Amino acid sequence: MFLFSEYETFWIFLFISSLIPILSFSISRALAPINKGPEKSTSYESGIEPMGDTWIQFRIRYYMFALVFVVFDVETVFLYPWAMSFDILGLSTLIEVLIFVLILIVGLVYAWRKGALEWS
């Protein structure tokens, strides 16, 4: 049986948290100036007038370099909680972390051999 009294705090919180973004977007849309001019459709490049076409192609190498960085950066964050509680967790966790680091090293070697770390 669903009882409203057991979940009333949840439903009130859900209602208010849904209402706040809806109201803020509605008020923003109502009060925002609508000026569709040539300046509005140009790209903004740090205050400098854009030169050339704004739709240029980037090489995939830049994206691969960024992805490799993000993957290894996020994975090293997982090592911090382990390092903080190393003395409590014991030998089995040490073996698991060594396997984790080994997988990271294998991924790094793979990315290195594929040329994902070269910035040329």
Automatic annotation (TrEMBL):
It comes from the Eukaryota. Core subunit of the mitochondrial membrane respiratory chain NADH dehydrogenase (Complex I) that is believed to belong to the minimal assembly required for catalysis. Complex I functions in the transfer of electrons from NADH to the respiratory chain. The immediate electron acceptor for the enzyme is believed to be ubiquinone. GO terms for cellular component: chloroplast thylakoid membrane; mitochondrial membrane; NADH dehydrogenase complex. Keywords: Chloroplast, Membrane, NAD, NADP, Plastid, Plastoquinone, Quinone, Thylakoid, Translocase, Transmembrane, Transmembrane helix, Transport. The chain crosses the membrane at residues 12-32, 62-82, 88-112. It is a multi-pass membrane protein. Belongs to the complex I subunit 3 family. The gene is ndhC. The lineage of its organism: Eukaryota, Viridiplantae, Streptophyta, Embryophyta, Tracheophyta. NDH is composed of at least 16 different subunits, 5 of which are encoded in the nucleus. It is found in: Mitochondrion membrane; Plastid, Chloroplast thylakoid membrane. One of its GO terms (biological process) is photosynthesis, light reaction. It is an enzyme of class 7 (translocase). It catalyses: a ubiquinone + NADH + 5 H(+)(in) = a ubiquinol + NAD(+) + 4 H(+)(out); a plastoquinone + NADPH + (n+1) H(+)(in) = a plastoquinol + NADP(+) + n H(+)(out); a plastoquinone + NADH + (n+1) H(+)(in) = a plastoquinol + NAD(+) + n H(+)(out). One of its GO terms (molecular function) is oxidoreductase activity, acting on NAD(P)H, quinone or similar compound as acceptor. It comes from Wollemia nobilis. Coiled coil: none annotated. Gene3D superfamilies: NADH:ubiquinone/plastoquinone oxidoreductase, chain 3. This is NAD(P)H-quinone oxidoreductase subunit 3, chloroplastic. Its EC number is 7.1.1.-.
